[in-house]
Design a protein that fits this description.
Blueprint lengths: L1 H17 L9 H16 L6 H32 L11 H33 L2 E4 L6 H15 L6 E2 L14 E8 L6 E7 L8 E3 L13 E5 H7 L1 H4 L4 E12 L13 H9 L7 E7 L4 H11 L6 E4 L30 H5 L3 H7 L2 E5 L5 H12 L3 E8 L7 H11 L3 E6 L7 H13 L3 E3 L6 E2 L2 E9 L2 E9 L11 E8 L2 H15 L11 E3 L2 H20 L3 E6 L5 H12 L3 E6 L16 E6 L4 E2 L3 E4 L6 E5 L5 H5 L1 E7 L3 H16 L5 E4 L5 E3 L10 H7 L3 H9 L7
Parallel strand pairs: 1-6, 8-9, 11-12, 12-13, 14-25, 17-22, 19-20, 20-21
Antiparallel strand pairs: 2-4, 3-4, 3-7, 5-6, 7-8, 10-17, 11-15, 15-16, 16-17, 18-25, 19-23, 21-26, 23-24, 24-25, 26-27
Helix pairs in contact: 2-3, 2-4, 3-4, 12-13, 16-17, 19-21
Length: 719
Amino acid sequence: MDQLEDGLDRYQERACSLLSDPALYINRELSWIRFNQHVLDEAKDPTHPLLERIKFLAIFSNNLDEFFMIRVSGLHHQLAEGVLKFPPDGLTTMEQLERIHKDLIPLLNEQTRIWFEDIIPELRKAGIIIHTRTSLNEKKRKNLRKYFFREIFPVLTPLAFDKSHPFPFISNLALNLAVILRRPRSHDELFARIKIPNKQFPRLIEITPDVADPISPGTQEFIFLEDLIAENLDLLFPGMEIVAAYPFRVTRDADIEIEEDEADDLLSAVEQSISKRWIGTPVRIEIAEDMIPAIIDMMGAKLAKYPHMFYRVKGPIGLADLFSMMNLDRPDLKDIPYAPSVPERLEKDPDIFHAIRQRDIILFHPYESFQPVINFLQTAAHDPDVLAIKITLYRTGTNSPIVQALLDAREHGKAVSVLVELKARFDEENNIGWARALERAGAHVVFGIMGLKVHAKLCLVVRKEKDGIVRYVHMSSGNYNAVTAKIYTDIGLFTANEEIASDVSHLFNVLTGYSQFTAYHHLLVSPGGIKKGIISRIENEIERQKSHGDGRIILKLNALQDADIIRALYTASQEGVHIQLQIRGICCLRPGIEGISDNITVTTIVGRFLEHTRIYYFHNGGDPVVLMGSSDLMPRNLKRRIEILYPILDAGIRNEVINTILPVHLRDNVKTRILQADGSYVRKTPGDAKPLQAQTWLIENRGIWNRNLMKKGSEISDR
């Protein structure tokens, strides 16, 4: 028996070694670039309204800005500190940086092509003209010059740099002009820098009717702020010859580090760290395509350690500013608006607590309204029978109705406990403001757990009823944010299940106190619990496949990176388990490798909404397990965050997820791309089948899952 066990151990070691081959893994950063390429692809899709296409250009650029500030800066840290850190794919830090540069160049060129060849002509047809310096006629040029001198000139501060003037500090993501000048009768070139004040002025300056001579009534005309400044540089440098002006921008490390164990006050430590975000080490320098070598060399000496930090841009730099064009009053150039539905049961039953206690309720945003979540908290705030509210806040946004409901609850004497995650990247300032407001109102505010981010989305309402204390729970994949609930796809669950409510109560005690509780009835909680629980369920499907041939797994996630889970999926595929993965963004698993991942398909959907839902389905021999929640399968989610996955216990809801929500996404043949073994993607086409676009179908059939449940009646006994 011992010899048999030793043999099995050696076999498993060899199998694990084989499945650790770097060739079986896609690099995380390069996989993310492929995702952002899909965003760029949407910008050239003529089925989108024109301003929506511009929005995708802006998202592509904004994504890249954050990618460099966080991910690329992390790689630069590794280089600077001499850290030898190899991801499962085996690429060194320098190899990753060089591949990132190589892979991004064609995408940046394509972005420029889309802007000039696709978007600009279509805008002109729609009566929106983006002028360049050369397209301005004399009258517009003169009138814009007057506007420039009156409004913009007083704000500008040219900075010379030479032997007596130090190279100026270039702040993070600030757009600049590098200006070359000559004195009269001199051949010596001088250099100056002008910071473009695009925080004080819109990036696109509208040429108003009092300035412009419209080509036709109703035409809107604009010019980029940097072009307007470049056109009038002689007013800033009188008596000098303007030789040339080149736009450029520096991206800096914005991944703030907080020494939590050394901080007396976490809130103050985060606040102080935010101010350093704009002065971090440079990681990217975007320059005009035709910038002369002399300026590049000067910037390289001051800002760049490596050639891969430079990116030549043929068009406007920093197109994330194009988000502003969505403010144009042109509904004909935007997506057709729709009214999200509300579950019929919540419309018919004015008592939301009664409705939840009768039966679990799911809300699939943005197809269904986020308002019931707001109503849940507002009702709890004013209900005299509610004793306490506990909630986690990660990204709430500005003017948050959720936070206002919590403030109202305090006014009505409720015990309110709020875990505010101060380290939610780029939302720190918002969260600090809300934390202070809640503390002033008397709420018990907690700032997280040492060394971990709290990413779980949880709300618990404790209510005194005739038959005793009842706890109501809301859990979701998405943030308590009314704005993102309109543009991200997320599924939330209302339940009064006693065992789940008990789990959530224990988890809040872990978050706010010193509880070490781990014996949850139903929740999978990371660190530790989610990874263990998912691998256990994969192994169960392997055993089912061996004994009954019916192993099946479907995972719909944002990202799949964890090497141990990928190896478990490879093993399941080798045993014949049928695996369908729909991964919106990063996927480090290579599907379709003979003998390794033949039974795995990976698809992705990028469309009108950002796919943000996490659904874990395991066939479990016909008694399916469906888990949802906040966690993706990345090391950060599994090791460095408090995350949860919760089971769908209501058989009716579970069936609707399995038979409606998952299939419509997996059958999409319009916006779906299929991952190939080499890391590339192929667009899925309808062929002879009827075109099916999942997000469009879900808009047209919004709330069908809740309507079906109303028809079927209760699938489980009332609680």
